[in-house]
Design brief:
Layout: E1 7-10, H1 16-27, E2 31-36, H2 39-53, E3 58-62, H3 68-81, E4 87-90, H4 108-130, E5 134-139, H5 162-183, E6 189-195, H6 209-216, H7 222-225, H8 227-234, E7 245-247, E8 250-251, H9 261-275
Parallel strand pairs: 1-2, 1-4, 2-3, 4-5, 5-6, 6-7
Antiparallel strand pairs: 7-8
Bound molecules: NADP nicotinamide-adenine-dinucleotide phosphate (NAP).
NADP nicotinamide-adenine-dinucleotide phosphate (NAP) binds at residues 12, 14-18, 37-38, 41, 64-66, 91-94, 112, 139, 141, 195-196, 198-199, 201-203.
Length: 278
């Protein structure tokens, strides 16, 4: 997709995979809008992008993805300036190792990894549709294979494990993408998701040192980890391709459970209820 004069919104651009993705997309001439929770980091990134790419069309919007109100405010701020959005990359994520709750009292892995991209995308859908051809890319994970959607205890109130709740959030990204692709049929907007690889980023900072060391042996650098996001965001090869899950720039296998559209429909409704949208 030609990105000159196009608008791209990327979450989680202040670190890791999102940072590399944002720099690449800026280098292709797009105007960037970056929701960030730490505006100092956002300003530093803006400077880095200008230095590396010469692109100074970078706008920072304060946004905490663990707060539904903050996401609503972010969308309001975006709408005040823009009526087009050609590329949305739902990249931000967290891997909590202790059960924590968001500003809204929702389990943190579920809130940040699923509800945040759900609400952000939902509230921007009309603008994205009006900007077609447009793309929505969400960063999921192969970790989704470790979970099924547990609608009886989505937030792990009865039983919580770090792996299961992270994995469930990443599985939710796949269900969200499938249902979104269906909703967007015929609009010229595509929705795809991906596994970036096991990437050396701050995502694992809260893990025990031994775990970090073991994972460290197989980690790839963020530049490599961002390749599939950038591919799905820009490549003509995936023009019109929608509802897919990719890894290493190719369609990849999900679990059978992740293909169950009944679960996708149910999660869509549950997510709407959580976010208070109709
Ligand atoms: N690294 C891997 O091996 C791997 C594997 C599979 C999938 N993924 C997925 O890749 C995506 C990017 O992660 P990464 O590996 O690049 O991790 P990272 O370096 O930790 O970056 C995460 C980004 O998300 C932002 N973020 C986290 N919580 C937030 C919140 N509550 N509000 C606003 N922003 C928030 C962070 O902001 P701050 O800079 O302010 O912290 C940062 O910009 C995630 O969705 C992750 O699940 C990563």
């Amino acid at each position: 997709m030609e990105l000159k004069d196009k608008i791209a919104l990327i979450t989680g651009a202040t670190s890791g995979i999102g940072q590399v993705t944002a720099i690449d997309i800026a280098g292709r001439g797009a105007k960037l809008v970056l929701p960030v929770r730490d505006t100092e980091k956002g300003e530093a990134l803006k400077k880095e992008i200008a230095e590396k790419t010469g692109n100074t069309s970078v706008e920072i919007i304060p946004c905490r993805l663990d707060s539904l109100d903050s996401i609503r405010d972010c969308v309001k701020a975006f709408r005040q300036k823009h009526d087009r959005l050609h590329l949305l990359i739902n990249n931000a994520g967290t891997w909590e190792t202790k059960r924590k709750e968001s500003v809204d009292g929702i389990e943190m892995n579920f809130a940040v990894n699923h509800l945040a991209p759900f609400l952000l995308t939902y509230l921007l859908l009309d603008i994205i549709k009006a900007s077609a051809p447009a793309r929505i890319v969400s960063v999921s994970s192969t970790a989704h294979k470790q979970a099924t959607m547990n609608f009886n205890d989505l937030e792990g109130k009865k039983r919580w494990s770090s792996m299961r709740s992270y994995a469930q959030g990443k599985l939710a990204n796949i269900f969200f993408t499938r249902k979104l692709a269906e909703e967007l049929k015929g609009t010229g907007v595509t929705a795809n998701c991906l596994h970036p690889g096991v990437v050396r980023t701050r995502l694992f900072d809260k893990m025990p040192t031994l775990f970090q060391r073991i994972f460290g042996l197989v980690m790839i650098p963020p530049e490599k980890g961002a390749e599939t996001s950038i591919y799905l965001a820009t490549s003509p090869e995936v023009e019109g391709v929608t509802g897919g899950y990719f890894a290493k720039k190719k369609p990849a296998k999900t679990t059978r459970h992740a293909q169950d559209m009944e679960v996708a429909e149910k999660l869509w409704q549950v997510s709407k209820d959580y976010c208070g949208v109709d």
